[in-house]
Design a protein that fits this description.
This protein is of the alpha+beta class. The chain has helices at 11-19, 24-33, 38-44, 50-63, 79-82, 85-98, 113-121, 177-183, 186-196, and strands at residues 66-67, 76-77, 132-138, 141-148, 151-156, 165-167. The protein folds into two domains: 11-98, Arc Repressor Mutant, subunit A (Orthogonal Bundle), CATH 1.10.10.10; 113-196. Helix content is 42%, strand content 14%. The chain is globular. The N and C termini lie far apart (39 Å).
């Protein structure tokens, strides 16, 4: 993908040749959540620059990581790109455990990135008898996440079926579960607690 190479016959080196360029993994992160048009990616890669984004997308397409149909179609990960998800989730877990968040950080943040972070935190529960579909809403942002005994799924926009619990907040607000539970109708609170127990948010 890049003219630069480590020139080493090693799996890590070959992967780094493909993924080590600046911004590449952040593009993968966003496309894991949903296909994106160029303008959407440009807005999310603040500071990258239009020309560099175009070049990186071209390189990633040539490498087989992403695909795009007609010029106005969104970019999407190929099977090769989607196969990076376990590594990305492990990087999220590693960062949460070992990398300190700078105090007072005001960095760019999009709320759907937290859907991926929740997947990284998801702990399968054998005692979860039935799936739970949670809906999140904050302003004009709507998303959903569904937990089952051994799986986690998520998406942007309205879920296709009625939610079991509706959180009137961003996912980041779940760090204070007691405050969120007080905002829910009494009939949803037990379901919400069961949903939250699938994620070690402490």
């Amino acid at each position: 993908m890049s003219e630069r190479t480590y020139g080493q016959n090693c799996g890590i080196a070959r992967a780094a040749d493909l993924l080590g360029e600046r911004w590449t993994l952040l593009i993968v992160r966003d496309l894991l959540i949903a296909p994106r048009r160029f303008s959407e990616l440009e807005r999310r890669m603040k500071g990258m620059g239009t020309n560099l984004l175009a070049r990186r997308l071209k390189d990633m397409t040539q490498a087989g990581l992403i695909a795009s149909g007609a010029p106005r179609d969104p970019y999407a990960l190929t099977a090769m790109g989607l196969a990076l998800e376990p590594m990305v989730l492990q990087m999220v877990r590693w960062s949460l455990n070992w990398v300190e968040v700078p105090a007072g950080t005001g960095g760019l943040h999009f709320p759907d990135w937290d859907l991926l972070a929740l997947k990284a935190l998801f702990a399968p529960r054998a005692d979860l008898e039935t799936p739970i579909l949670a809906r999140f809403e904050h302003g004009d942002w709507i998303a959903w996440a569904k937990v089952a005994p051994g799986s986690y799924a998520y998406g942007l926009g309205e879920p296709g079926t009625p939610a079991d619990v509706s959180f009137p907040c961003l996912i980041t607000a779940l760090r204070n579960p007691a405050a969120i539970l007080r905002q829910l109708p009494p009939e949803q609170q037990s379901t919400a607690q069961t949903f939250l127990a699938a994620f070690p948010l402490d």
